[in-house]
Specification:
Radius of gyration: 23 Å
Number of strands: 0
Order of helices and strands: HHHHHHHHH
Structural class: mainly alpha
Helix content: 55-70%
Number of helices: 9
Shape: extended
Oligomer: single chain
Largest sheet: none
Distance between the termini: 40 Å
Mean pLDDT: 80
Low-confidence stretches: 1-33
């Protein structure tokens, strides 16, 4: 959720929507500029990136990510030795996430773009957007989940006979997987 919020708070809703279909140049080196969207001639400065992150409240994302990840790791791997967890925490704490962010921004935003983004986030409308975005994202996530469940139910109902027949064949071929009665 925080990654999604972070993307929206940075004002990348149009970019996010544009990336829902595959584009050439997208792959393992997705951060590199493609010929369709070349890096700007005057890329955003590190200072501008830090200001955008501060204005949107995402400058604390690294700490929040670490704070959220470590309990999850401990839950998934309760046998993890404490010294390994401490080493992971220490190493992640010194990793250059900020440098990676700056490089990513520089592939896509110019200094002029950044100046306009900063001006927007300093405006009353920008501040309002930052304030309401968590609620908008939460509402959107809830609505999307509800709609997804509804669609799944409807499709399963339309194909009920086909699914039941496939289940019978599967259980005949895999008796150990058959439900116990």
């Amino acid at each position: 959720m925080q990654k999604i919020a972070w993307l929206f708070l940075l004002g990348t809703l149009p970019v996010l929507a544009a990336t829902t279909t595959p584009k050439s140049g997208v792959g393992p080196n997705w951060a590199a500029a493609s010929s369709e969207n070349p890096a700007p001639e005057h890329p955003v400065t590190a200072a501008q990136v830090y200001e955008i992150l501060e204005l949107t409240g995402t400058d604390t994302l690294k700490r929040e990510m670490l704070d959220g990840m470590l309990p999850y790791l401990k839950q998934m791997m309760p046998y993890m030795p404490a010294d390994v967890v401490a080493d992971l925490q220490r190493t992640l704490g010194t990793a250059d996430f900020e440098g990676a962010m700056v490089r990513s921004f520089q592939q896509h935003l110019s200094t002029e773009d950044a100046a306009q983004i900063i001006a927007f986030y300093q405006s009353p409308a920008g501040k309002h957007m930052i304030g309401v975005m968590p609620k908008i994202l939460n509402d959107g996530q809830d609505a999307g989940s509800e709609l997804g469940q509804q669609v799944m139910f409807e499709v399963i109902q339309r194909h009920k006979d086909e699914i039941d027949a496939a289940a019978r064949v599967y259980h005949e071929e895999h008796p150990a997987a058959a439900p116990q009665r």
